[in-house]
Write a structure and sequence with these properties.
GO molecular function, one term (chains A, B): 4-aminobutyrate:2-oxoglutarate transaminase activity
Shape of chain A: globular
Protein name (chains A, B): 4-aminobutyrate aminotransferase
Number of helices of chain A: 16
Oligomer: homodimer
EC number (chains A, B): 2.6.1.19
CATH superfamily of the largest domain in chain A: Type I PLP-dependent aspartate aminotransferase-like (Major domain)
CATH class of the largest domain in chain A: Alpha Beta
Structural class of chain A: alpha/beta
CATH architecture of the largest domain in chain A: 3-Layer(aba) Sandwich
Strand order of the largest sheet of chain A: 3-9-8-7-6-4-5
Catalytic activity (chains A, B): 4-aminobutanoate + 2-oxoglutarate = succinate semialdehyde + L-glutamate
Radius of gyration of chain A: 23 Å
Enzyme class (chains A, B): transferase
Largest sheet of chain A: 7 strands, mixed
Chain lengths: ~500, ~500
Amino acid sequence: MASILRSRAGVRAAAQVRCFSSTPRHAAASAFFTNEPAGPTVKTAIPGPKSKEAISQLDRVFDTRSLNMLVDYQKSTGNYIADLDGNVLLDVYVFAQIASIPVGYNNPALLAATKTTDMASALINRPALGNFPSHNWASILESGLLRVAPKGLDQVFTSTTGSDANETAYKAAFMYYAQRQRGGPDVEFSSEDISSTMVNQAPGSPNYSIMSFTSAFHGRLFGSLSTTRSKAIHKLDIPAFDWPRAPFPQLKYPLDQFAAENAAEEKRCLEEVERLIKEFHNPVTAVVVEPVQSEGGDNHASAAFFQGLREITKRNNVLLIVDEVQTGVGATGKFWAHEHWNLSTPPDIVTFSKKAQAAGYYFGNPALRPNKPYRQFNTWMGDPARALIFRAIIEEIERLDLVKHTAQTGDYLFAGLERLAEKYPGQFNNLRGKGQGTFISWDSPQRDAVLKRGKEVGINIGGCGESAVRLRPMLVFQKHHADILLESLEKIVKS
Amino acid sequence: MASILRSRAGVRAAAQVRCFSSTPRHAAASAFFTNEPAGPTVKTAIPGPKSKEAISQLDRVFDTRSLNMLVDYQKSTGNYIADLDGNVLLDVYVFAQIASIPVGYNNPALLAATKTTDMASALINRPALGNFPSHNWASILESGLLRVAPKGLDQVFTSTTGSDANETAYKAAFMYYAQRQRGGPDVEFSSEDISSTMVNQAPGSPNYSIMSFTSAFHGRLFGSLSTTRSKAIHKLDIPAFDWPRAPFPQLKYPLDQFAAENAAEEKRCLEEVERLIKEFHNPVTAVVVEPVQSEGGDNHASAAFFQGLREITKRNNVLLIVDEVQTGVGATGKFWAHEHWNLSTPPDIVTFSKKAQAAGYYFGNPALRPNKPYRQFNTWMGDPARALIFRAIIEEIERLDLVKHTAQTGDYLFAGLERLAEKYPGQFNNLRGKGQGTFISWDSPQRDAVLKRGKEVGINIGGCGESAVRLRPMLVFQKHHADILLESLEKIVKS
């Protein structure tokens, strides 16, 4: 563990740096992490010799073919990720564990949250939350994940991962739709419902569907994978439900130069959404959408598009599920990305995971609780240990005002990238994410080479889709880190 | 937290009681937990007034209709579960959190495991294990969950719950089957595979199936729910795959009196399994089975049945997936329940969760690693914090020799139940689980009344299927607890 975490002095030091500088400079005094290195260190190729040896040991029992870097977490700090060979990289994307580390490695405030009696009990007396919640479960929820619930959504169903957050949300949508078809919550299941469902046939197991969009990513279990449309390799050989896929707008950049064309493209997509809801052969119960399609290539759409989607789903009595697994918890400069849309009525369901470290879905309409107990149920229904970590993350976000901070750092970083794009034509194409915090990406003609070269100069950046470079820094990413990133990117494109 | 957990003296005291008495008596000296109460305390109806108030607070934000008891975990110890109203019950089933607490509430050895640097790092620096495992992940696996891997299975894929352990196992089965159909791991996907899977159609998203049994329970997400056949309420209104269901043997008890009929019943079921493998319209890639069908009513089958199932699956090139989510980790008197079968070749895949506190699947055949990376992948791929807890559980099981202990306590308890069954005819029907540790159950003519009355006399027991009472005590359940349980059951049937 980094030394700051052992010393009380270190904790105090971190607690004192509440404000950050708004001027772009390498300002050590304003650093959130006083023990962060001044910049990356690259000592060996990655993986280096020590890592290679450890990877081959691990590979004997655990598939390592997707391994990106073997990490020494105890030597990682703040925005910097370390390995066994003494390499220390600025962690700007997958980095942060596929966008799932919000407030830095070895954050002292999170460490303090691991030392409580509540945490020890959650770890060793793991409850079946549906049957035997602890007496303080309500207070853990209310002081934690419900305090940041999206506007209008005051209920939660907790789960363990983004995939099962989405799948339990889909189950809620199916039960709600079936209940309305049946004539309300008090109408009993028919004997045909009951006998047919035991052999997986309609009407008990109906051919209902969830609509998703081209290039969407919603998870990799069977229900969520049926809505995932990102890459064939995610889906091949796995049976899938016959559910509809609507086109997601393909916008042209820069947005202000293509306003009319983009508006027409969004209109076309919305018309197709409505047509599919009306005509698809397996009744559509919900539409699921990411505020920014992440795995699928960092595809954005306008607030107007999402407002239109809300109207269409309302008009057709279909639920709108917003998948904030990757976009939630501050990275777009709002706590929830869908706050950018100014909807007149909230989404029906919002799912979360990743940076929350806990997972689940928020909802507001009480009718989305199924009409009987044990319909939406499983053994653990989440993990209170992870709910306690989410609460500590929320407190850290509030203490350091990290959502506003991320909006400002994002604007600063975007401006820097615009300067680079102008200086190096053709290298930073379709730069996108303006006004969306640090949720920034662009298309690169030699994307894979750029990612590889990144590691050599000390930055850990990631790709998505076919040609996009995407940035997913933590919320504690600061302007001096942005400067290092911009300098490194310039070094890469010059070389 | 119970006081023993704060004091080092308490930890030492617990560590000293390594052996347990083999004579049936209320032997305080041999108790695993020195601070356990001598017996249950029932002060109020459950829920009592304080619990009622807390439940209504919780219900505002979290569905409480399946709530069984609001628990004060910090006042719970060993085999005893406490609530806010001063009630302390002997926890013999759901109890133990739907069979998921192995070594007692507030076990000091588990508490010690929460205090390590590794645990703190796992909690605050949660890795994406597929991309960025920690440098000591191999050693955490090898010193923990791989040390107890079923014979012949030396590889693991980690996940977060029983449902996703089963579903990722199913995905492995589908990819393995498709690879053989395609002609081996080096044959590339066709362009038709790639284009069809993006719209969820065959051949890229094939109509393959997983076979399960009547009354099976394998989870509640879309793939696992398609193999679950326990109760309609688990399945209604949720779309399901068209997968086959084979009959699970319905044995008659006592087994020695119905040997010939039971053998014929098992033969009939096996024949139907083989017929379905050969004839079902959606190709069967794997058969999934529980060693004891738990949620479905505690249905047992003989070792010969499972040996036959292994032969049939081998002969037809279909995988055998053994779902040990509820049966694993010692409760049947073997670490893995399928060890009772003495198979000549191991199952292809064994899934685990619950008492392991971590989840995933074991396998041995290297070809069950998909032919390319990122095919079996997700963001977190499990939780190292939970893997560390499983390691501490394994150490505690070994220290106290709890598997052998559970076999012996089970025999003692079963003999006591046989005496009760003889004394109270018609009250303990189809008593089952002989020689299966504490994995014991029976059918009761007034099952729901028995469960309710249990709480009034201080024992927390559970039901399954239509009329079964099932026992799922922890591994630290001792003979003096069995005596209390037997006395309480006698009190209930007499009243």
